[in-house]
Amino acid sequence: MMTRVKTAALAGVRGVAVTVETDIRRGMPAFNIVGLADITIKEAYQRVRPAIFNSGYGFPCERITVNLVPAGSHKTGSHFDLPIAMGIIMAEEGDWKTEDTVFLGELSLDGKINPIKGALPLAISARENGAGNIVVPAANAEEVSILEDVRVIPVENLSQAVDYACGLLEGKVYKGRKAAAEIKRSIREDFSQVVGQESVKRALAAAAAGNHGILMIGGPGCGKTMMAKRMPGILPPLDYEERLEVTGIYSVAGLLSEERPWISDRPFRKPHHSASRAGIIGGGTRPVPGELTLAHRGIIFMDELGEFDERVLDSMREPLEEGVVRIRRNTEEVTFPAEAMVVAAANPCRCGNLWNEKKICTCTERQLAAYRRKLSGPFSDRIDIHVKVNPVSREEISGENTSPPGMSSEEMRILVERARRMQSKRYINYPKKYNGNLSYEEAAEFCVMDEGAGRLIGQAYHRLNLTARAYGKLVKVARTLADMEESEVIRERHAAEAAMYRITEGTECYVR
Question: What residues contact residue 478 under an 8 Å CB cut-off, 6+ apart?
Fold first, then answer.
């Protein structure tokens, strides 16, 4: 007898529909799995057989062949245990009506169903392929409950899954604690706590408004990290589709828990400067998401940029431009989304004292040259905004300065939302399009300048000796600055401010 049970497989961070075909025939007892299954799936026999016995069902002493359809794509994951077991029991107990149901779950030897990685993207795939019911481990039910228009059936053991399949267990829609509700953000770290640095805060607001990468260069202790950590608070909250996307990534990476079953805030990732290429980009024998993918729809903060391995920075260039990481394994290519905003911070030199009037720089000329080369290399050329961060004076720290209070996160968020509304109207036919990721052709179409702005940007191109890429980024930043003022045309003042964000301090750290 042959049975068919629906399930899904992971391809990167996306699910792919899979059908588990189980054929049981007379012959010498054997158990074979075909269809490009990995070692975890091939070991399923050692888990499925005792789980079936210990759940009170019989295991056939016949020739069993399990085929994973489509057979031409590689499949991995222990979540195939449950559909394989269901196919075998179905062949012995009777043909149940499960055409509209997808089964996901890893089995323990006693028949209990363990939580799995990637439950949400697997469930999304099931919904997209017409499944109305999804049987998942009880520990994953909260995570999957964020899905709309689908019935989630949590099961704790194999017997409950069988009872549901044969109609003895009524499947109820698992709504979860907060899945359908918007989660109100509580912002504890506010830009109003940052003393001074108003020009840098303005640049950070522009970066958030247009989804531009930004590099802050300044000595130790001037507030670069403090400001970077407050960036998520001025970004718009994730919408429903973005929450599904980001939560799916964290599910595949195994970074969800019962306390945090979904991701409701924009990610903020801060990899250490000693991180490897695989740690940043992703990889491994079974490719897993790296920091760049974990920062998708959020921020990746590259602190101490000058200390990162140049090979790691070079490997980030293409993913940042394309918004996707591509990893080749044998004959297949795995892709991970990587639309993250880069916020980088660096000292002006290796010791950090190059611009400090009270301390002496101890770097040699050779060290300075190597450090400048890294900061002005191909990776930095792909960062739209470069800004110098000056030390804060004692008067500002102590409150003796009578200057008016600086911008708060709420005020900066208003600027960001205003600019993003302008962009959503302008790029209505381009989903998730921002000024920062406009192509050359799109920039030429949408970045309309008045005569003064065009003349000033032309002068900046020649005087700063900009590359063609840097010129394009200057124009796109000017477009964002105009959007922050709700101006359809780029004015001369917008171009002048954008040009300021392509230089830092003198010739020592001339970033192009």
Answer: 447, 449, 453, 457, 490, 494, 495, 497, 498
The verdict on 60 and 208 lying in the same domain is no
**Count of domains in the chain?**
2
Cα–Cα distance measured from residue 334 to residue 198, given in angstroms and rounded to the nearest whole number: 43
- In 119-230, where does DSSP find H-type helix? 119-128, 141-144, 158-165, 198-210, 224-229
171 in a structural domain: no
Cα separation of 323 and 436, whole Å?
Answer: 12
Distance CA 412, CA 22 (A): 59
* Tokens, residue 268: 């903020």
pLDDT in tens, 342-376: 999 999 999 988 888 888 999 999 999 888 888 87
**The pLDDT value given to residue 179:** 45
Paired tokens of 280: 């940043």
Averaged pLDDT score across all residues of the chain = 90
Residue 397 is inside which H or E element, if any?
helix 394-398
* Predicted structure pTM score: 0.92
Whether residue 133 sits in one domain with residue 89? yes
**Are the CB atoms for 142 and 177 separated by under 8 Å?**
yes
Torsion of CA 460, 503, 343, 232, to 10 degrees: -80
Q: Are 27 and 62 in contact (CB under 8 A)?
A: yes
Tokens read off for 116: 């799995």
Query: CA-CA distance, 173 to 154, in Å (whole number)?
Result: 9
Question: Is 289:320 a contact under the CB 8 Å cutoff?
Answer: no
Q: Give the burial class of 405: count Cβ atoms within 10 A of its Cβ; 0-12 exposed, 13-18 middle, 19 or more buried.
A: exposed
Mean pLDDT, residues 10-15 = 95
* Contact call for residues 71 and 35 (beta carbons, < 8 A): yes
The verdict on residue 509 lying in a domain is no
Q: Tell me the per-residue pLDDT of 39-97, one tens digit each, with 9 for 90 and over.
A: 999 999 999 999 999 999 999 999 999 999 999 999 999 999 999 999 999 998 876 87
The answer to whether position 512 is within a domain reads no
Does 211 lie in the same domain as 126?
no
Residue 503 clears pLDDT 60, i.e. is over it = yes
The residue segments making up the domain with residue 302 are: 191-500
